User: Fold Carboxyl-terminal protease from Lacrimispora saccharolytica.
Amino acid sequence: MESKNKFWKGALVGALLTTLAGLVIVGMSLGIFLIGRAAIDGKGQAAESAQAENQDGNLDMNRIVNKIQTIQSVIDKYYLFNENTKNVEDWIYKGMLYGLEDPYTVYYTADEYEKLMEDTAGEYCGIGVMVSQSAATGIITVTKVFEGTPGAEAGMLPGDLIYKVGDEEVTGMDLELVVKDHIKGAEGTPVTVTVLRTDTGAYIDMTMERRQITVPTVEHEMLADNIGYISVSQFDTVTAGQFKSAIDDLEKQGMEKMIVDLRNNPGGVVDAVVSMLDYILPDDLVIEGDPDLVRTKKNKTLLVYMADKYGEGEQYYASDGHKIDVPIAVLVNGQSASASEVFSGALKAYDKAKLVGTKTFGKGIVQTLFPLDHGTAIKMTVAHYYTPSGFDLHGKGLEPDVAVELNENLKTKIKIEHGEDNQLGEAIKVLNENR
Assistant:
């Protein structure tokens, strides 16, 4: 009961702080780097100095090592139970990264890293939902439930807060591990998920059988008035190809305007979103009124750029010679994150699209994996990314050109019909007014 009370308090805090972390991280394609662990050998008593840092701002490693040795000697002499030294060592490293106060920077034990990197060959045996995590509270929220999946059949709804998977509380756990190690699993195996339904305050246990889930990342159709509609659920390695095929098909049908729906899209791989932007934008755009943007190449369309702590990083430019010359509206909301914001921010910077909906999530940072010794690893924030105009959206998000909240009665629906979707209706209105 005490843990549920803590969870409920966290849920209230999470409802007030509306910051959600994307499920998939932009920037993994920046590379995997190997760094070794330097062996630290030292003896002696804890240093008398209480200073945790040297004058140059670095950690006083001698003092820290001495203090750890002192603590270990106390454990060896007085601790009543058997010490799990592997577990203690792992938590030393976890605590070191936790002290950075960055929810996206974490230490993975060997078991955790192995599970994270397991190759599923594109197979997805799970329950058919998308989730996101509050950076402030660690609470995991269901953002989308796909029709015809175990989650939908069990009665799970958008907005449900995931409290437990099986017997284990998952609040505050690394989201990638919760999904890969707890929710996903072997096909045909059962999994019980306990959710908190916020409108009733009830905890609901849902037991379902994991199944092979095939969810296209891109869906499209032609709406009235020759408006092409493309929904992108996430930016995966196959998404760019699906997106281009959707545009080609809609153009063959006579598309005169286009809506790209990125609502509840948590992001994905940067290469996919760059390829999609390249297909839409011409190759020779520049940012008007910004001659000091040093990353702008002559006659090259800047799509997004990264900057690490030294101001250096990758820049991505349009180069495929293809463009889309129709009015565009992009649907966004508070769970449109990372790659979704790269896509929206680039089109907005060049005034090539109107953003319709609510302010985006505001995740403008990049994470990279650093493998360590003994099968362990670190996931660490290494850079900011910026829109072509130089806007750093991290912690701020992108403001829509036309602000409109989704009707309250639609927020927990699994499928929203086009005719009742007031945000889609506003996007159509915006496009029709532009002609």
